[in-house]
Amino acid sequence: MTRVLAGVLAVLCVTVLVSAGTLRGTVLNRGFYQGVLDDERAYDRLYDEVLVDPEAQPVTRSLLARLPVPESVVTANLKTVLPMATVRKLTGDQIAALLRYLRGDTDSLSLSVDLTPVLANLSDLGEVYLGSLVSGTEERTEADLDAALEAMETALDDLAAGRRPSGLPRVELGDKAVQDATRLLLSGVPKGEREALHAQVEGALSVGDVATALAAVGPHLPGTTAGTGGEKAEQDLLKITDGGQWNVAEDLQNSGADTGALHSARGITHLTMGLVQTLAAGAGIAAVVLLWLFGPRTRARRLRLLARLLLMGGALTASVFLLARWLADAWLWTPPASWPPSLAALVTDLERTGLRSLVDAGLLASLLPLGAGLLLFVVSVAWERRAAGRSLSLRARKAALGGIGVLVTTTVVLGPALLPTAARGSERIYCNGSAELCDLRYDQVAYLASHNAMSSTADKFISPLQDADITTQLDNGARALLIDTHTWERPDEIAERLKLSEFAPDMQRQVTGLIDKASPPRRGLWLCHAICRAGAVPLVETLREVGDWLEEHPGELVTLITQDGISGEQTASAFREAGLEDLLFTPDSDPEAQWPTLGEMVEDDTRLVVFSESQDGPAPWYRNYYRYGMETPYAFSSPGEMSCEPNRGGKDKGLFLLNHFITHGGGSRIDAEEVNGKDFVLERARRCEAERGRPVNFIAVDFTNLGDAQAAVEALNAARTS
């Protein structure tokens, strides 16, 4: 009876120890949770589904109501207001707090999110919006301008003024205009305060600094709080969010979420990782010693007994986790009905994936005692036959060696290697945000491309075609940048360049009229849109920013397609000065050669591909795009005109650039909202793929922050990886 009890105890101890090890590698491992989040694309779904869910708006409206920015502007700039890196950090902080509670390091569950960086981004967005109201007026109708001015007045009231909006242009005013504008701005200020402000406002307007003039009078306008300054809006936001701290645990309980399961789990994990695991280890050793001392007489039979116990312990462990898989649906927590459907679906999917990963890890862990038991069993049989003076036949020895090889592979590879993989899914290789994309070749993947990426509102270009700067465009999902390289134009070159630009005729005449007043040419290499006096950013500095971004995002690939206004030698020199040579990918000189997979490019750390529209070399990595790729036309003046007709590059090349923007007197922000819509992009991309017989690779759009072209790119890639 004692031997039977000792055997049962040993089997139970094996099960407890293996289960405890599984819990330690999963439920108590930070990488496990990040792996589940990545497997379910939780961060992408947060932006693409939850935060734009109409039923989620009441949750955020109290924050947005204090901003001088429409909700649609915030939702279009979600990744600016709430960057992916910020979300990952906030999530990681909560996972760490949860693990401290589950391990018993803390006695209470405290989940608190610091919203201060997010609120600051919201406040900054208000400033950017104010700037865009003015800098975008050249594209607005008369009625739109009136609405913009009215929104600007409301914005000043809401911000309590005092804040100097960034992005407002300087306006050259004559002496009379300065006096008239000063009188107009001060007309809304109480009479007793006008004299003190007069000199400051007039001085700012005399040098064209409209922003400072507005900031000076704003706090003194009726209905605002004088002296509070530009911090009032952010302070209001902090106030309604309890100082910027969001108590997640408290809100979960108030919303009807039952956190009792977490408290129960804490009791299990804390007890299992401490007393139970220690007792199981001690009891198991005691049982094995007892069975070895008082078990069968021969050592071979004792080994066989231990083998049986390990086999039964492994089988019992596997049965426990198989039972958990069978009961998994019953264990899922159901989100409250008041939650937005998108959030409830995300939480449910995360639960299912987490339970599945836990069960898979447990089944892999059960292979360890099973493999060890089988190995001991083989050893005991060989030992017994040797002790009896009988040797194994050649066939039996080969079978035994083969079995041992399989067992060793099972225990050494599947156990220690695959178990950590299941537990720490975040360590998998990701290519452009997806593990599945790593298996696709470069020419099989779709990429969101930013047309004239350097021409941005942020960098104060005239008639910009993007809102954010290049780094922010990359943060928001652009993986191809269409850029124009130039040297600073001479006055006699401006008219010729303007003829090739997308500026409207009126804009061309205005710019031409300013030639005599323009500053002299500036030395160096630049990224400009047609003419550098209409907006320019330095080439080398911008390339360094792209390189820095790639270094910070080791699984991402970026493609540059340059409209080259400088020589190939100058381009190579710029990339060399920017320190990008090690990141550059060199395409095969044969355009028909097969491209590598994204995974291979990530592993080789050659994640920057550079094409030219005109030149080919001399650097081997600098290839003419139209040797390798084709495109659609790009001079569409309305959405209805968008076709799939062949343009540069013919119609049978391996890479496919879809020019997907409207040019109507310059870039059209209004049309961008329509043509950048997910359904619109998908319909055209699939139509062009059917006509050309090639998958679309680069979807080039204006104003990448408008519409949802990124979601269309993700849908195309999802279909290609399924």
What do you see in this structure?
The protein is an alpha/beta fold. The protein is 56% helix and 8% strand. It is built from 29 helices and 12 strands. The strands form 2 sheets. Strands 3, 4, 5, 6, 7, 8, 9, 10, 11 and 12 form a 10-stranded mixed β-sheet that branches. It has a two-stranded antiparallel ribbon with strand order 1-2. The two termini are 57 Å apart.
Topology:
Elements: H1 2-25, H2 30-39, H3 42-50, H4 57-64, H5 71-76, H6 78-81, H7 84-102, E1 112-114, H8 116-135, H9 142-158, H10 175-186, H11 191-206, H12 210-217, H13 232-240, E2 245-247, H14 248-254, H15 260-294, H16 299-326, H17 328-331, H18 341-387, H19 394-423, E3 447-450, H20 470-475, E4 480-487, H21 491-499, H22 505-513, E5 525-529, E6 531-538, H23 539-552, E7 558-564, H24 568-577, H25 598-604, E8 608-612, E9 622-624, H26 625-628, E10 629-631, E11 655-659, H27 669-675, H28 678-692, E12 698-701, H29 709-721
Parallel strand pairs: 3-4, 3-12, 4-7, 7-8, 8-9, 10-11, 11-12
Antiparallel strand pairs: 1-2, 4-5, 5-6
Keywords: Membrane, Transmembrane, Transmembrane helix
Organism: Streptomyces gossypii
Pfam family, one: PI-PLC_X
The CATH C-level class name of the largest domain: Alpha Beta
Estimate the helix proportion, in percent.
55-70%
Put simply, the count of helices is 29
Number of domains: 4
The biggest beta sheet, please?
10 strands, mixed
Strand content: 5-15%
Q: What form results from the Cα inertia axes?
A: elongated
State the low-pLDDT regions, or none: 61-70, 127-153, 155-161, 223-234, 236-241, 407-427, 514-519
Which class of secondary structure composition applies to the elements?
A: alpha/beta
Query: So, CATH architecture of the largest domain?
Result: Alpha-Beta Barrel
Output the CATH topology of the largest domain: TIM Barrel
Instruction: Please identify which CATH superfamily of the largest domain we are dealing with.
Output: Phosphatidylinositol (PI) phosphodiesterase
Average pLDDT works out at 75
Measured between the Cα atoms of the first and last residue, the distance is: 57 Å
**Number of E-state strands:** 12
> Which value, in Å, is the CA radius of gyration?
33 Å
Keywords: Membrane, Transmembrane, Transmembrane helix
InterPro entries: PI-PLC_domain, PLC-like_Pdiesterase_TIM-brl
Protein name: PI-PLC domain-containing protein
Pfam family, one: PI-PLC_X
